[in-house]
Amino acid sequence: MFETQQEEEVSTALTSMGFEVKPEQVKQIDQAELKVIQSVDFIDVKLAEDLIDVLDGEITIEEIDSLIQDENFDELPDEAINVIVDALNETSDDIKEEFEDNVNIFGDDNYDDYVPAGSVVDTATRRTVVAVTAATAAATGAAAGPKPSGGSGGGGGGSEGPKRRSRGGRR
After folding, report:
1. Which helix (H) or strand (E) is 143 found in, with range?
2. d(Cα 1, Cα 37) in Å, to the nearest integer?
3. 3-class secondary-structure state, position 34
4. Is residue 135 part of a domain?
5. How many whole angstroms separate alpha carbon 115 and alpha carbon 123?
6. What count of Cα atoms within 13 Å lies in the side-chain half-sphere of residue 103?
7. Are 113 and 141 spatial neighbours (Cβ–Cβ below 8 Å)?
8. In the prediction, which pLDDT does 36 show?
9. Is residue 142 part of a domain?
10. How far apart are CA 27 and CA 129, in angstroms?
């Protein structure tokens, strides 16, 4: 039934936890992921089942929705987030977009290796680029010094805001 000893061991472990798994599901789950599933099983059996669905091969929107909508999703251990990130990095942009619509990928360092939909860089790199850009802009603004007021008795610099917004569009 199973092609490798590892597949049989994973199947036996998941079955002993009460999960009904098919051979094709077991092929995609390695020992590290099995340990994560076991740790999640202590939190919530349904959450562990949803995690198995995400890790067992091609992820669907329904599977990712079920996982992230679980009331205990925020309780997942770091190792679980890391295996979810690995799985998502191998999936299509529509699945990633669904995930990103529901999870703040920039709010937790566990998502540092996650590559968002339509991107080629991970979130850690993107945060660095944004920070460097902001620091450069702040340094450039500080180096330019104060702008002359135009002699109209204050408030002369206020007209810059709307002009910038209309040229730059959404920020």
Report:
1. helix 123-144
2. 22
3. helix
4. no
5. 6
6. 28
7. no
8. 83
9. no
10. 38
Domain span at 103 = 5-128
Contacts (Cβ under 8 Å, ≥6 apart) of 84 = 51, 54, 67, 76
State the pTM of this model: 0.65
In the chain, the amino acid numbered 84 is I
Looking at the chain, the whole-number percentage of residues with pLDDT higher than 90 is 30
Token couple for 129: 């680029």
When pLDDT is cut at 50, 70 and 90, the band that residue 5 belongs to is confident
How many structural domains is the chain composed of? 1
Measured CA to CA, the distance from residue 136 to residue 133 in angstroms comes to 5
Q: Where are the beta strands (DSSP E) in 38-146?
A: none
Structure-token match 């599977």, residue found: 63
Given a contact cutoff of 8 angstroms between Cβ atoms, the answer to whether 116 and 96 are in contact is yes
**Cβ atoms 51, 67 nearer than 8 A:** yes
What are the phi and psi torsion angles at 5 (to 5°)? -60, -40
Its sign, for the CA torsion 62, 63, 66, 68, is negative
Q: What is the pLDDT of residues 61-101, one digit of tens each?
A: 999 999 999 998 988 889 899 999 999 999 999 999 999 99
The reported pLDDT for the residue numbered 153 is: 52
Q: Does residue 134 form part of some domain?
A: no
Tokens at 154, concatenated: 């204050």
Residue 150 is assigned to a structural domain of this protein: no
